[in-house]
Amino acid sequence: MRRPSPLPRRLRRAAIALVSLIGVLAILFVSLGPTVESSVRPTAGDLATAREVWQQLKVDRGTGKPTRVRIDNRAISGLAVLAGDATGLARFEGEVTGGVLSGKASLALPAGLWINASATVSGVHTGFPAYRLKVGRVPFPLVAGRWIAHLGRWMLRLRGADIPPLDEIVRRVSIDRQHVLAELALPKQGGLLRGVLAARGTNLNDSLVSEIYCRLAAEQRATPVANLSQLVRRTFDPAQAAATEEYSRAAFVALSFLVVGERIERVAPRAAELAKDCPRPNQPFALQQREDLAMHWAFSAGLTAVLGGETASSLGEWKELDDSLPNGSGFSFVDLAADRSGMQAALRALDRATVANAVSELGRVTEDDLLPPALLQAPEGLSEASFADSFSSLDRERYREAVASIDQALALQRSLGAAGD
Question: 3-state DSSP call for residue 101?
Fold first, then answer.
């Protein structure tokens, strides 16, 4: 009589062991709620603070020389708010108190679960500092903080990110009672950004971006067009376009290369490098007779293709908040409408369920489809004080209602366009 195979029993044991391991890890690292309670939207003041820090960093960027940066609690708080707003899934906070820099992060998981982490660092450090790290209920030894940071860099480099050794980026860190003093040598443009894109897993076909861009640039040199809608129709011409997410992603990036230029090339540096042999026609494009609106639409669509809709939406709002500061052109809901139109067009063309219809619509789109004329009457030129008086802040109901009305107008125009076809 044949004995039953021991394999099923071994599989059951392995499954039980795996489930037990997952349970233990969940108990150790996963929480039912966030330790960073608030999820605050940025203000114009946060943008001003970030600009101040950025101005410090720009001095010697890419030269190999370290730049000295001085950051106080106001800057730490502002940068933490911006970081959380950009990710959409994580919350951050930090402060310097009594000579200790402390930071917390809460990462949202499905089913209302969270991973919470905290870190502290103090004193003076040459190179990337050693810091105390706690994830969930597990405190790590002091040396583990550096190991984990180096492991993260190594993983990003495996995905193609050109990130120098951490001790080359962070030359010195000193923490006094109220400030962080750091000497940083940031790599040349593109290295850190490639790391961010690699971490997000963006699946951009750089060769296809270059191919589409070179075709559009050649067509523009041969037969120039001035309206953004004409360029969009060329980009998604049924004779040239494929109704796939891969083509749509590459097409929006290529289109934005043509309309916006260097600013969008920074988020797709490899594609820009491949496309550099195709001269960019020096021909501006307009949307509703305004060049700035064409740039807003194309930039937002390109950002959505590379970074996702949530990040593109946040960056568009940050731009308007920054414009509300002194010497800016003011917060513009018309600009914001163009941003949201470009973002939504990209999202529909990047969704497997809607890509075929979206590409077909873009192949025959009109100027009014890209930005309905009614939205040109939205408020513009608002100073920081005027925006606060009328809408309070980005996380208040009055502002959300204003954005919702923009989205409703865009949805109505799409439905009218579809009915007209």
Answer: strand
239 and 386 assigned to the same domain: yes
Are 238 and 386 in a shared domain? yes
As a whole number of angstroms, the distance between CA 264 and CA 306 comes to: 10
Co-location of 77 and 156 in the same domain: yes
Q: Do 229 and 374 belong together in one domain?
A: yes
CB-based contact 98:73 (threshold 8 Å)? no
pTM given for the model: 0.85
What are 140's two structure tokens?
């790590």
Element (H, E) at 391: helix 384-391
Calpha distance 294→289 (Å, rounded): 9
Rg (CA), the chain: 24
Strand order in the sheet with 179-184: 67-72, 179-184, 170-175, 124-126
Q: Which helix (H) or strand (E) holds 205?
A: none
pLDDT band at 198; cut points 50, 70, 90: very low
| Integer angstrom CA distances of residue 111 from 33, 37, 114, 115, 364 | 11, 17, 9, 12, 41
Q: Which residues pair with 140 in a beta bridge?
A: 133
Tally of domains in the chain: 2
Same domain as 293, residue 398? yes
Kindly state whether residue 298 falls inside one of the protein's structural domains: yes
DSSP class of residue 15 equals H
Domain that holds residue 48: 44-186
Angle (nearest 5°) at CA 64 between 62 and 66: 105
Predicted pLDDT of residue 193 = 52
132-135/114-122 β-pairing: antiparallel
Instruction: Give how far Cα 394 sits from Cα of 126, 185, 314, 318, 353, Å.
Output: 40, 34, 10, 10, 31
Residue type, 119: A
Taking residues 174-201, report their average pLDDT: 70
Q: How confident is the model at residue 247 (pLDDT cuts 50, 70, 90)?
A: very high
Quote the CA–CA distance of 181 and 97 in Å, as a whole number.
14
How many residues does this entry show for the chain? 421
